[in-house]
């Protein structure tokens, strides 16, 4: 049985994308909330 870190790599890429798009967020809490929303609607 083979193991892959593809899911983790995909999540990291989505977070990096949100980070690039959301450069203007005022604080870390808004940024974190955006990541949680993305995860909620992705899975």
- Low-pLDDT sequence parts: none
Estimate percent helicity: over 70%
Characterize the overall form: elongated
Helical/strand content category: mainly alpha
Mean pLDDT over the full residue set:
80
What gap, in angstroms, lies between the N and C termini? 24 Å
The radius of gyration computed from the alpha-carbon positions, rounded to a whole number of angstroms, is 12 Å
Main sheet makeup: none
Kindly state the number of beta strands.
0
Which range does the strand content fall in? under 5%
Please work out how many helical segments DSSP would assign.
2
How many domains make up the 3D coordinates?
1
Q: H/E order of the elements?
A: HH
Task: Describe this protein's structure.
Helix content is 72%, strand content 0%. With 43 residues, the protein is mainly α. It has one domain (5-41). Helix 1 (6-21) crosses helix 2.
Question: Which secondary structure elements does this structure contain, and how are they paired or packed?
Answer:
Layout: H1 6-21, H2 28-42
Please give a quick description of this structure.
By secondary structure, this protein is mainly alpha-helical.
Structure keywords:
43 residues; mainly alpha; 2 helices; 72% helix; Transpos_ISL3; ATP-dependent protease; hydrolase; peptidase activity
